[in-house]
Amino acid sequence: MTDFAVQAAIIAGVVNLALAGISLVRGARQRLHRSFAFLSLAVFLWIFGRLTGLAIVALVALSLLPMAALVFGQVLLHHRSRRSRLLLLATIGISLTLTTLILTRGLAEPVRLYLLPAYIFLVVGYVLARMNHRRRVTRSRLERQQLTVILLGVLAALAAGGVDLLRQFGLDGPHTGSLGALIYVIAISVAIARFGLMDLNVLIGRAAVLLVMTFMLFSLWGLLGGFWTDQRIASFFSTNRWSS
Predict the structure, then answer these.
(1) pTM score of the predicted model
(2) With CB atoms 3.0 to 4.6 Å apart as the test, which of 4, 64, 66, 182 could cross-link to 227 if both were Cys?
(3) d(CA 84, CA 102)
(4) Phi and psi at residue 175, in whole multiples of 5°?
């Protein structure tokens, strides 16, 4: 990964781990906080696997990510129907099967390249569709704002992950997966600090959340500025204008 991708991954990983820890320590009795901690931990493990080069850790995190996203989405939206439970059981079964195959090194390359990404985009896309439906029908302005921020952040993260996925097929492209994770963290932080998502701003302290958000926004600004400068410099010196 480039320096830009590494720095973005470190910031996103640290914040995800912090959010997971705070959710467990301060709100462990609430199912919503436990499910959010599970989701944050899955994202952190994926980032950790990418940074350390431990492919098995990153793959395990990716196999657990759809299950974590579905659990969090159902708890957040209060989905408790029979259909929702069956879907959750099926997702748990698929995720645990993939995890077992990965740990026993039995995950074939076609599964890793095609089925695993399709599984992630399918489940996360379903969760986003349910969130968007709830956003349109809810009468609560606050809930609509929370869901809008989450939707925008996750959609941007999925788009960045999709661009990053192209590299697996031999296509040239930037390392945008880490940037996607950082955008997701910023969106979640905005939903927590500005719109009181899960009341974590009460548990953590509004000042602490705003401090973390300010740090991430300045970090993102610095990363993007550095990335743009590096690209401009590289493009400038790679031209033939210096040749005689």
Answers:
(1) 0.77
(2) 4
(3) 27
(4) -80, 90
